[in-house]
Amino acid sequence: MHPILSNFRRLLLYLSAWGPVSAILVYLFATIGGLSWGRAAALAVPLCLYYAIVCLSAWYSCRNSPAANSAAWLKHLAAALITSIVWVAVAKGLAIALSSFFQTFAGLDHQVSRVNPLLLGSGVFLYLLVVALFYILLSNEAAHEAARREIEAQSLARESELKALKTQVNPHFIFNCLNSISALTSSDPATAREMCIRLAEFLRKTLGLGERSQITLQEEMDLIHAYLSVEKMRFGARLKLEESIEPGTLLYSVPPLLLQPLVENAIRHGIATLTEGGWIRLEINNGTPGLLAIKVENNFDPEAPRRSGANIGLKNVRQRVDAMYASRAKFDVSAGEGRFQVSMQLPAQTA
Amino acid sequence: MKDNATIRAIIVDDEDLARQVIREMLKTHSEIEIVGECANGFDAVKSVAELKPDLMFLDVQMPKLDGFEVLELIGSEVAVIFATAYDEHAIRAFEVHAVDYLLKPFRAERLNDALLRAKERIGKKPAAGPDQLAAAARSAEFAERIVVKDGTRVHIFPAAKLDYAEAQDDYVALASQGKKYLKQQTISSLEASLDPKNFVRVHRSYLVNLERVSRLEPYGKDSHIAILSDGSRLPVSRAGLTRLKEFLGEKA
Predict the structure, then answer these.
(1) Are residues A36 and A178 in the same domain?
(2) Scanning every residue of chain B, which has its alpha carbon at the shortest distance from the alpha carbon of A192?
(3) Average pLDDT score over residue span B67-77
(4) What percent of chain B has pLDDT over 70?
(5) Which residues, at least 6 apart from B59, have a Cβ–Cβ distance to it below 8 Å?
(6) What tens digit of pLDDT does each residue of B23-51 get?
(7) In what helix (H) or strand (E) does residue A152 lie, and over which residues does it extend?
(8) Is B137's pLDDT higher than 60?
(9) Which of A127, A162, A197 is the last residue in one of the domains?
(10) Residues of chain B neighbouring A181 (CB-CB closer than 8 A)
(11) Contacts of A237 in chain B (CB under 8 A)
């Protein structure tokens, strides 16, 4: 795209810049060429308009040869010479036409040769000036492009980071559920069906919410309840959940699947290690003004064997919080005396 | 086998429904008698000692002891079929000569195949020795905890709490906090399972926790003894002394 021809405002600006140029040329034609003011103007103004348009073609050679290349400047110089020679010829033609069509301009066709050197010199100069203008436009555009690309790259990197970190449902959870369903099909078909439905509800929610960048805490809690309703069927009385949620906090937005992996961790590394069962405590309230405080706590058997995949879910949640809020969020993990606690403070935002 | 016709089996899984599906699938096999069900690793070790089953269905991730730790403690008298949702333990399972490895959920036909293999195995001499079981029981990392069986009871303590180990024929005596536990394992296999930065073989028959060594004294013309912080005295061979000095020098 031609930077001047494609933009009407720029074209107007460019042509008006030629106004002073033609004024100077008129002045030079009158003083150095010894033409009368009227004749100088009749010659210089159309010649400038013509040259202004011709010089626009310099863009194409500028675009293809970078300014840093000295061979490019040789090429531009040659082009400048040729265009100004043509310009001199056009001036001659114009003078002949003017002198033959208008009585007032009689003899102009002879006078014009007096301004030939002037025309040739200013032609080369003006052409190179336009070349310089195009190079300035080009470097400006390149700088803009580079800045735009950098911003784009940054946002792409962040996006892909978040995408990579997007928590997926732990496949073992699904396999174990399917095994439970398989057990129930013959002994208790109605419960098997119920479990299928609950699992489907949870998976559907996960798929829907996982696509979005922010969801409300209410939606996350619904997801956790869907998840727990399945786990309750597997663990039965071994699983106890206590919730303490400050009214109003459920309207805040959080990244999807932020808390569910923490609850899942609490089950896998907590309740599943305790033969008599365990508890999970979930606390959500307004922390320091402007912050949302979330705490997930559970008990566990400190002597239990370490489970594979330990803390992958936790690490993932932490990385997502870091990527999303950077220093605006706090994330703490503590363990001791058979209790495990994850607490975080996020900026309290509503959608 | 007590009787050629019956195979006595126990099912070990912390989930009731997971045990239920195996129980149900075994109903069609009249030759299998389910003699016990356990919901955690401790119970499994205890049940094996008391009930002496021929066959065990074993989950990997359970409270108290995981499936591999259970296997390490019960030895290889029992044919084991793993049943788990995790496919990443399969290689380890075959290293400990498990009969089969069922991925949950599985079909009755798949369980039947496993039973056929189990029947071939039962009655034959066990293929895996205690060392192989112990070696495979730990994953790529060094052992963080040590499990020992004492009759029907199971002791677990962190590897860092092991003061020293002494070889006694086919067993090792593990000294920890003033108590001694006997485990069917060779001292070399124990040494291999522990982090060499913390445990040094000071003698053909002794492995010591570096943290416990308080000083060295010459003993006789060629050997030394290491005196531990609790006062225990362990013989140190010439090669052991070189190794020990290397480590203590590094630490100083």
Answers:
(1) no
(2) B17
(3) 86
(4) 90
(5) B12, B13, B14, B15, B18, B67, B82, B83, B84
(6) 999 999 999 999 999 999 999 999 998 99
(7) helix A116-165
(8) no
(9) A162
(10) 105
(11) none
What one-character DSSP code corresponds to residue A15?
A: H
Query: Which residue in A has a C-alpha nearest to residue B86's C-alpha?
Result: A172
Q: Domain map of chain B by residue range?
A: 7-134, 141-251
Q: What are the structure tokens assigned to A130, written together?
A: 């336009």
- Give the separation between CA A245 and CA A252, rounded to whole angstroms: 12
Rounded Cα distance, A319 and A325, in Å:
10
Contacts of A173 (CB under 8 A, 6+ apart): A264
Structural domain count, chain A: 2
0.80 cut: is pTM over it? Answer: no
Tokens of B192: 């291999």
Domain span including residue A107: 8-162
**Together in a domain, A142 and A278:** no
Helices (H), A32-115: 37-55, 58-64, 70-101, 108-111
Best of A174, A177, A182, A231 to substitute, by most chain B Cβ atoms within 10 angstroms, is A182
In the three-class reduction of DSSP (H, G, I as helix; E, B as strand; rest coil), residue A9 is classed as helix
Residue type at A70?
S
Tell me the shortest Cα–Cα distance from B51 to chain A, in angstroms: 22
Residues A268 and A126 in one domain: no
Using only C-alpha atoms, chain A has a radius of gyration, in whole angstroms, of 39
Please tell me which of the candidates A182, A235, A303 has its beta carbon nearest to residue B105. Answer: A182
Domain B7-134, CATH 3.40.50.2300 — does that match? yes
The class that CATH gives domain B141-251 is mainly beta
Range A118-126 average pLDDT:
90
Tokens of B190: 């124990």
Do the domain assignments include residue A191?
Answer: yes
Q: State the complex-level ipTM.
A: 0.73
Structure-model confidence comparison of residues B231 and A108, the more confident one:
B231
Domain-embedded: residue A18? yes
* B15·A180 Cβ contact <8 A: yes
Are A303 and B64 within 8 A, CB to CB?
yes
